[in-house]
Amino acid sequence: MRGGLGGGKVFGAKLISVFLENCAQRRAAASGMIALFDGEIGAPLCILHAGGITAIRAAAASGSRTAGLMCNLYSMTKSREALTAYVRAMRDRTANQPPLPAIFPDQLAPVAATSKEGLREVVMMRWGFPPAGGGKRPVTNVRNLDSPYWRGWLDQARFRCVVPATSFVEYTDTQPKVAHWFALGEDRPLFCFAGIWRPWTGVRGKEEGTHLLFAILTTEANDLTRPIHAEAMPVILTGDEIDVWLEAPTEDVVKLARPFPPERMQIVLSGPREDTWGMS
Fold first, then answer.
1. Beta strand residue intervals within the chain, DSSP E
2. HSE of 92 in the Cβ direction (CA atoms, 13 Å)?
3. What are the tens digits of pLDDT across the range 211-265?
4. Is 272:102 a contact under the CB 8 Å cutoff?
5. Class of domain 66-271
6. How many helices (H) and strands (E) does the chain have?
7. Structure confidence by residue, pLDDT tens digits, 1-46
8. For the chain, which terminus, N or C, has the lower number of CB atoms within 10 Å?
9. Distance (Å, rounded) from C-alpha 74 to C-alpha 85?
10. Domain map of the chain by residue range?
């Protein structure tokens, strides 16, 4: 893979090795390097770690300092009743929302948050904050919690949310990419991502108006996800952690932004772009 910088003053080549069998030993499946050369005389300038460069580029849009983003795909295939009970919501405003075996950025998905009246409710929100810095793509992940882009929403408990899910994807850095689905068990028990939401007026999903938008927090990868995606994984909440995230002061909730214990997770599916387990 060849590319140029600075109007031809520098050019480089990216080399990638892929060993999918490494996943079984929880080692990185893909590794890469970028060699840069002087564009005038061809002299080598330096060698860079490809994963680090990818992480910096991906993180820039969300105000993240160094870490990359989780891959933007997850599922939520449990019933509305199970979802509402799991997040201890007092009201469900999702109408007849069917199971969702593949949720991508800019799609609507069920999210639990606190209403103006102080009630915990499940509502449909669209995945991705407004593009940052003149970008075009929605900002789907949060990593740098000190960034002003996020802090104003994080400090207000009403604008924190939890995003129910049954599995999520990390991709190997290969061509073509391979999707690996992670869950908390073969039977896809419910869990939640820690999230932030906000209202926004404009055009999203070809609809103009006021939209409810959410983004998912990420943190450093754990020992299970790191061989697939070394830079980051979503912040996963279960049990009473959901109440803490939605109700506690900021100094308490930021402590939840940590890797989920790898022994409580597993890879349940590899290859498909949707997880239909349990759907009849």
1. 2-5, 10-18, 30-38, 44-49, 74-76, 91-92, 100-103, 108-114, 120-127, 141-142, 160-165, 167-171, 179-183, 191-204, 207-219, 233-234, 236-237, 266-271
2. 16
3. 999 999 999 999 999 999 988 999 999 999 999 999 999 999 999 999 999 999 9
4. no
5. alpha beta
6. 5, 18
7. 455 555 667 767 766 564 434 434 434 444 566 787 777 777 785 6
8. C
9. 20
10. 2-52, 66-271
